[in-house]
Design a protein that fits this description.
The chain has 302 residues and is α/β, with parallel strands linked by helices. 41% of the residues lie in helices and 17% in strands. The protein is built from 13 helices and ten strands.
């Protein structure tokens, strides 16, 4: 696979049964769908441009812009947005002729991966999450005191997506400030401003109180996830200031066939701060036959 992949050279559009979806695609092999987070200016390319080169050497890598983000269609219906976004991935797979894929999601994308595994389990071969929240008695990233500083900064930047505000977002997302470059801030601001209706719709969700699922929805998701046997690799930055790594401890405790990796000196964007390790670990997880019989302990002298 060429190292000269660009956003333009990998850009694609497809009309699904409900939405026109933009995505970036490269490589051949088993389909690997990487799902971006929910911040202002987020899209498939902005979240995973550090990963598509390496992973597309072996996999058919697809980076969708979830409806409501990037170049994909907007949402006008504020009811059940998470369920609709999850359905959009299934419809994208239908149009691309993909029967089963590995899904790997960061933050909001991780939540969508959990919902996909719970609701379209026959269509997912592996599930991977990074910094994913898990709804339950307390919604997502909130404590009883309300959203933390990282979430408040995100909402502020949806209202005013300037490079200066994106610096505050990146400071909450990243452990290492060396990754916060002027080019990154300008890119995220430009991407956010290119789709002003997406920003307005997100703020409508915030103002309507429908951004987060109600506790009953979270309880229903947890009940479904407890029955999921799909191989799962759960990742979290130890120093994540947006979603505590305790969320991933909860997720891995629910899933029957899961393992957990905590990344040292890493924030919310594992795929950027720990790109080489992330790429290696994703490939290793996808390469293992998780259905292979275990070696009896007696064969090891146990």
């Amino acid at each position: 696979m060429s190292e000269d992949l660009t956003e333009a050279s990998t850009s694609r559009f497809v009309q699904t049964a409900k939405w026109k979806i933009h995505f970036n695609e490269a490589g051949t092999g088993h389909p690997l769908i990487l799902l971006h987070g929910g911040g202002p200016g987020a899209n498939g390319w902005s979240n995973f441009q550090s990963n598509i080169h390496a992973l597309s050497r072996k996999y058919r890598v697809i980076l969708p812009d979830v409806p409501g983000y990037g170049k994909s269609d907007e949402f006008t219906d504020l009811e059940g947005v998470t369920a609709l976004q999850t359905e959009s991935i299934k419809l994208l797979m239908d149009e691309l002729g993909i029967e089963k894929a590995a899904l790997c999601g960061n933050s909001m994308g991780g939540l969508l991966t959990l919902h996909f595994a719970a609701n379209y389990n026959e269509r997912i071969s592996h599930m991977l999450t990074m910094g994913a929240p898990l709804p339950g008695a307390l919604p997502l990233t909130m404590s009883p005191a309300g959203p933390g500083p990282g979430v408040k900064t995100l909402i502020q930047t949806f209202r005013n997506p300037t490079p200066e505000n994106f610096r505050l977002v990146c400071e909450s997302m990243l452990f290492d400030p060396a990754y916060i470059t002027d080019a990154l801030l300008q890119e995220r601001s430009k991407t956010a401003l290119a789709s002003p209706q997406h920003l307005k719709n997100f703020l409508r969700l915030v103002e309507s109180g429908k951004l987060l699922p109600n506790p009953a929805e979270g309880t229903a998701l947890i009940a479904k996830l407890s029955q999921v046997k799909t191989p799962a690799f759960i990742m979290h930055g130890r120093d994540d200031r947006v979603v505590s790594f305790e969320a991933s401890l909860r997720i891995v405790s629910l899933l029957q066939n899961s393992q957990l990796m905590i990344f040292n000196r890493c924030g919310h964007w594992i795929q950027l701060e720990q790109a080489k390790i992330f790429n290696t670990m994703v490939d290793a997880f996808l390469s293992v036959d998780h259905n292979a019989s275990k070696t009896p302990s007696s064969a090891l002298g146990g």
